[in-house]
Write a structure and sequence with these properties.
Structural class: alpha+beta
Pfam families: Exo_endo_phos_2 (PF14529)
CATH superfamily of the largest domain: Endonuclease/exonuclease/phosphatase
Order of helices and strands: HEEEEEEHEHHEEEEEEHHHHHE
Strand content: 15-25%
CATH architecture of the largest domain: 4-Layer Sandwich
Number of helices: 9
Organism: Penicillium antarcticum
Radius of gyration: 28 Å
Number of domains: 3
Protein name: Endonuclease/exonuclease/phosphatase domain-containing protein
Domain Endonuclease/exonuclease/phosphatase: 102-217
Distance between the termini: 32 Å
Number of strands: 14
GO molecular function, one term: catalytic activity
């Protein structure tokens, strides 16, 4: 996953559906190198089915990466099981009305009831448009090519797709899984019949490095999804104060309003407002926020980073052990400083939420939803 999720062609996608993701042994999460551009949707930790069950539940078989280019208020994700995620997002086609698209991310674990769950979810949305994809662990000549022996899982999957009008998008006979001299087609994509005419491509991109025995599948639909809008703001720290004061003094004219009526006062107010606004436009540039920006990363942190980079360049040039020692000391000092700064800022925000009471918790919840989308929500 490491090389796959760093490929520019992969990061251009709106949604990345992963089956059998890498599991972090220290935390309940997966590998996420693209935090600036994608939101990771990793299933919550499973629970044991029985109290006397000694073994832990299997690790999640699926996860989703949703691009932050999409408006987070227009999509939501429902966790059906540890091997089944259902993503709902708004879409339109050539300026028609906005409708919902349901993306089913599935890992059909051997011996599981995932396909029956798929049947139930499709039955709950009989008029919706669906994309069903994932590692189906099913073999059939319809997608595996001539000579492929059909198994029970494939027959069950075909029964479900035929019942709900889903069309196979895979290229017949092109392997999606290889290991040594073995190959098969088990990573499948099905789309609703109403989406077939809008299917641009569904192919195995051999130009993408994936470092896995499963090949990625690139699927593109001719649809439009709502883009996240970013509100413009002024970079007040870069204000030229001298120029601001000068512009205000030039534009603002003080008048005697002791005998003025309401209309004159209102006109003077509008004139003052326009003068101040014009002065701000001339003296304060627009901010250019970066996806990596952090308001808690203050000037002291930036100075520490610059110092470490300077010492590293000096050691690269001289290869002197003393320069390496100076670089190591500065690097460790920088790490401690940044950790302390960010921890204190987080504690301040938590304390502020506590002091604000329920209203502060509500604002925090709204901010989280607006930032990451509505995850693990129930929808029809």
């Amino acid at each position: 996953m490491a090389t796959f999720l760093r490929d520019e062609k992969v990061l251009a996608a709106d949604v990345i559906a992963v089956q059998e993701p890498w599991k972090n042994q220290l935390q309940h999460t997966s590998h996420q190198p693209a935090t600036a551009s994608f939101q990771l949707l990793y299933p919550t930790k499973g629970v044991r089915q029985e109290q006397n069950q000694e073994s832990d539940p299997p690790p999640p078989g699926v996860c989703l990466f949703v691009s932050k280019k999409l408006d987070p208020s227009t999509w939501s994700c429902q966790l059906i099981s540890q091997d089944y995620q259902l993503l709902k997002l708004r879409k339109t086609y050539r300026d028609s009305d906005w409708t919902d698209l349901f993306i089913h991310n599935i890992y059909n674990r051997p011996g599981s009831d995932t396909l029956e769950r798929l049947r139930c979810e499709l039955a709950r949305r009989p008029h919706g448009e669906h994309v069903v994809l994932g590692d189906m662990n099913a073999h059939h000549s319809l997608w595996g090519g001539v000579g492929t022996k059909a198994d029970t899982e494939a027959e069950k999957l075909l029964e479900i797709t035929n019942e709900w009008g889903l069309e196979l998008a895979n290229e017949e006979g092109k392997p999606t899984w290889t290991r040594n001299d073995q190959a098969s087609v088990i990573d499948l994509t099905f789309v609703s019949s109403s989406l077939v005419d809008r299917l641009i491509q569904c192919e195995r991109p051999d130009d993408v490095e994936h470092s896995s025995d499963h090949f990625p599948i690139r699927t593109a639909l001719d649809i439009k999804t709502p883009a996240a809008s970013q509100q413009m703001r002024r970079n007040w720290n870069a204000t030229d104060n001298k120029k601001l004061v000068q512009k205000i003094e030039e534009n603002v004219q003080v008048k005697d309003l002791s005998q003025a009526d309401t209309q004159q006062i209102e006109a003077q107010y509008q004139e003052l407002l326009e003068s101040v606004q014009s002065s701000i436009e001339d003296s304060t540039p627009w901010a250019k926020p970066s996806t990596w920006s952090n308001s808690d990363f203050d000037d002291e942190c930036k100075a520490a980073v610059k110092e470490v980079r300077r010492l590293r360049r000096r050691h690269t040039k001289t290869q002197d052990p003393f320069d390496w020692m100076c670089y190591s000391i500065a690097r460790n000092r920088k790490a401690r400083l940044i950790k302390k700064k960010l921890s204190r800022a987080h504690r301040r925000r938590v304390q502020q939420v506590i002091e604000d009471g329920p209203q502060g918790m509500w604002r925090l919840a709204k901010w989280q939803i607006a930032r990451t989308g509505v995850n693990n929500s129930n929808f029809e």
